Amino acid sequence: EGSLSAAEALERLPLRVGDLFAQLKQSHSAQQSDQLLQELNVVYERAQTQRDRLGFSCSERRNDLGRMVGDARASLREAEVRLTLLQDHSQKLQLGIDHSLAEVNRLQEQYLEHRETCEKSQRRNHDALALLSKDLPLAQSLVAAVTQTCTGGGSSPPALVECSLPDGFIVTFKDA
């Protein structure tokens, strides 16, 4: 706190005290001096009381505000930590979603390929069945024509002979 000049101090005094001080300077009477000192003491005590009250109030308020600022900073740090954790968790979830989406797309493509392959196989099987159905009467008439010359029931299949060799077995027809 800076010091005041006498003129600045006089300007800050209550009007009555300033007038008494001016009269004292001019007359130099003891009665006016005592009255001025009493008035100055009252002003000083009032100012000191006010200063003390404001000082304590200010100090308490400063301490309270300091605690509030400290608490707010701690809360902010905690919120920032939670925000960071939440952002990390969100990124992990997004990464999981991206992987899942890629897997779904891969499975969808695989499904479409399998469905196309299955449809092609069904068409080939249908076409092959149609060809076989078309060839069936011809094959039946061919079998009937070939087996017509065979004697009924007296034929037997040719006999087979099994020979053992050092590297395995061989099966052949038996000589007639």
Automatic annotation (TrEMBL):
<keyword id="KW-0175">Coiled coil</keyword>
<protein>
    <submittedName>
        <fullName>Uncharacterized protein</fullName>
    </submittedName>
</protein>
<feature type="coiled-coil region">
    <location>
        <begin position="97"/>
        <end position="124"/>
    </location>
</feature>
